[in-house]
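hey can u run this one w/ BJW bound, need the structure tokens asap thx
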Amino acid sequence: MAARPIVVLTGAGISRESGLHTFRDADGIWASVRIEDVATPEAFARDPSRVQAFYDSRRRGLLDPAIRPNAAHGALARLEARWPAPVLVVTQNIDDLHERAGSHALIHMHGELLKARCLACHAISPVRHDLASGVACPACGQRRLRPHVVWFGEMPLGMDAIAEALDGCGLFVSIGTSGNVYPAAGFVDHARRRRARTVELNLERSLGADLFDEGHYGPATEVVPAFVDRLLAECG
Ligand code: BJW
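ok here u go:
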């Protein structure tokens, strides 16, 4: 049978072994910071310096040379290069580890930490420095940049392209996400309705684990390369 398109959804768990924190694990980001203080448009309107400082600190962390893509990111790039049909990675992560590993067909549905958005002219620009000190927008010169990330209550990015890919996929794989946050948590349902095979790869069963046809549990650097190797062997 001909190979069918694949959609892969990734979450914070895939980057954990690269040294980045997840959100809802015991040592996760939300254990030390409240969502309401840093990840809503209301928080930014109330206290922009605090929100900027939170993302500035995470951006500095991401740019630490010790933070590198791991074997799971590498395996997905290999899958895209070798699978005979399209492979789309939809990531909830704002890090750039998928692209550093070599993934090209990639949607950052919750935005990108290394980009800023201008509140005055809406231009999106690359950023590698702290925004708290008031960096000017390279397009219009105003000092009204915010992190290019999607906060609670905001519309995730690329939703039309994601829906189209889910409509046409034969396999949906969810990796390293707890299934707490919508609309991403609903993608498995969408794929099932389209009769795609659905697979969860995670450290432990997620909230929606029962919705998947199969699950493989363990660290992403082990279960993802093993799963990709099996898939590539199946298609010869
Ligand atoms: C490992 C591992 C290892 C660990 N190996 N695995 C009531 C009901 C339903 C929905 C709503 C509701 N009220 C409001 C909503 C909507 C809301 C929502 O979902 N709220 C819920 C919390 C209830 N969603 C929104 O507001 C979204 N927008 C929206 O819905 O717009 C309207 C719309 C309607 C219809 C269609 C389309 C749109 C926006 C959500 C924005 C999320 N933003 C954040 C922060 C910004 C980015 C950032 O700062 O980084 O995004 S929140 C945070 O959670 C971040 C993540 O991307 C996101 C998901 O987290 P993730 O990746 O799942 O991480 P964890 O920590 O939860 O899980 C890690 C997993 O990895 C665990 O399972 C571990 O076991 C595993 N793991 N180590 C493998 N080594």
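The pocket of BJW is lined by residues 11-13, 16-17, 22-25, 28, 39, 92, 94, 110, 149-156, 159, 176-178, 180-183, 202-204, 206, 219-220 (CB under 6 Å). anyway lmk if its weird
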